[in-house]
Amino acid sequence: WAAGEGDARTVGQLLADQVEFADVIVLNKTDLMEEGDERRVRAVLRRCNPKAEIVASVHGRVDPAAVLHTCLFDPAKAAAHPDWLKEPREHGRAPETEEYGISSLTFRSRRPFHPGRFEELGRVLERRGAAAPEETEGLLPSIHRDAARGVLRAKGLVWLATQQSHWQTGAASLAGRKFAVTYGPAWDAALAQPSPPSEEKKGEERQPSWGEEPWGDRRTELVVIGQHLSRPAMTAALEACLVTEEEMEAYATAFRDAASADVLRHLAGIAGEDLAERIR
């Protein structure tokens, strides 16, 4: 059983269904809310589901005891809900992924993203399908921008062809209408150059933490979730953001033989603002 052609239900209705039936609701990203917004959201949730426990969180950090083994689910109360088991009994239940056209893909690459093209893709993701009035053909062809407009959520590890991304792992995240790339720990390959294998160890399998030569563990692993998402089209859009062969050669020329110690010496004594510009 699934939604028919005339069924106009949206992801918003899926969200409402889940909120109304939940025992625990995690209210994430409360640090990004304006003053008073959290109270209004809590009031709406209380109206939809007066009995649910509401747990506020930042960056998804939640005490496991607040959401696991809470013993809040009551089968007797659930059975009294008018929609409980209605669909499975009458129609056979289709998952929400089919009912609302939600699907996902995981994009993996051992080649970095071009920073300009990936930034443009990020702006499209933030608009969620609403084209800017002044929008013209940019670094990405319109066919790739169109493919990205059904994306609801994206998160994962990214590698960009920039100085900062060469040394530090990047974390990309699309949540709501906010897309950002933040940088964290260094890539394993950036911490030290692997020593050449000894005569006895030649031919042995390389340590998996170093990944593929010559760039070690630098890579992109990005999960994309969307509604009525074309996986081939979205994959093509992400591939269009990768550096070309010529751009990869330029990147390799700049970074192949660089060592982290060289960069630290070069940046020593640079003022904060100047450093921020250079590290881009």
From TrEMBL:
Residues 191-217 are annotated as: Disordered. SMART domains: CobW_C (SM00833). The keyword Signal does not apply. It comes from the Eukaryota. The keyword Cytoplasm does not apply. InterPro entries: CobW-likC_sf, CobW-like_C, CobW/HypB/UreG_nucleotide-bd, P-loop_NTPase, Zn_Chap_cDPG_Synth. This is CobW C-terminal domain-containing protein. It comes from Corethron hystrix.
